[in-house]
Design brief:
A hairpin with a 5-residue loop joins β6 and β7. The protein has 4 helices and 8 strands. The N and C termini lie far apart (84 Å). It has 2 domains: 48 residues; 162 residues, Protein Transport Mog1p, Chain A, CATH 3.40.1000. Strands 1, 2, 3, 4, 5, 6, 7 and 8 form an 8-stranded antiparallel beta sheet that branches. With 234 residues, the protein is an alpha+beta fold.
């Protein structure tokens, strides 16, 4: 006689196959129960997002207020006066349930620059509070990507920086010819807060003022970042 419709298969060797089928079914039920327990324990069923670790940083509508410029003043720079309808410094901000973003742009000039000198010196700072997504996994890669940007005129060197946040990196543009300026980026991640300050300086070769080296610019940015981040928590 054949196997009745709907009955479990007997398999090879007679009735022993039925027990194997029942054992497999029981194992699947146990495995499902264990997996359900894991989901409940880890919150897999409720769909809640991980709580953002903002490390005490606060949103501000004017990032220029906590931006510390003392290290630049100590190094021989002064803030330019605003001209006409252009104010200095300039700031912007945006508050959103997923991401708060803040920017500050400050134009400087060397204290010893003459009226005939041409120079372009600015500090551009951004800060972001990531409230839905942890920026940690992609943070280093974002700045390591500069290492792949090379031309016949310049390249970038990326190095880790200690003593700032959970992780920090400095990106230095290195010219292959004589340089009349410096371009340096300092990036900091502290929890789910990310911060970036960029120093860009160009001084004409005929100017009486001398541009900072990338190393000197890095030192100014580190001092400014340390003081600025402390103020952003107040």
């Amino acid at each position: 006689m054949g196997t009745a419709p709907g009955a479990p298969p007997t398999g090879f060797g007679g009735g022993g196959g039925g027990k194997g089928w029942l054992w497999g079914l029981g194992g699947a039920v146990v495995a499902s129960a264990v997996w359900a327990g894991v989901l409940f324990a880890t919150g897999g069923f409720d769909g809640d997002d991980a709580e953002a670790d903002l490390a005490g940083y606060r949103y501000t509508t004017n990032l220029c207020t906590p931006t510390d410029t003392q290290s630049f003043k100590d190094s021989g720079y002064q803030q330019k006066d605003g001209t006409g309808s252009t104010s200095n410094p300039q700031h912007s901000s945006s508050e959103n349930p997923a991401l708060d973003s803040m920017t500050c742009n400050i134009d400087f000039e060397p204290n010893d620059a003459s009226s005939s000198d041409y120079s372009s010196v600015w500090l551009y700072t951004t800060a972001s509070l990531h409230k839905k997504t942890d920026p940690a996994p992609e943070f280093e890669a974002q700045y390591r990507a500069y290492e792949d940007q090379k031309t016949s005129s310049y390249s970038y060197q990326v190095s880790p920086v200690s003593g700032l946040g959970d992780e920090a990196y400095v990106v230095k543009q290195e010219g292959r010819t004589s340089s009349t300026g410096a371009y340096v980026i300092l990036a900091v991640r502290d929890g789910w807060m990310t911060y970036q300050s960029t120093w860009s300086e160009y001084v004409s070769s005929s100017a009486s003022a001398t541009a900072k080296t990338p190393e000197e610019a890095t030192d100014m940015l580190k001092k400014s970042a340390k003081a600025t981040l402390e103020k952003m928590k107040r």
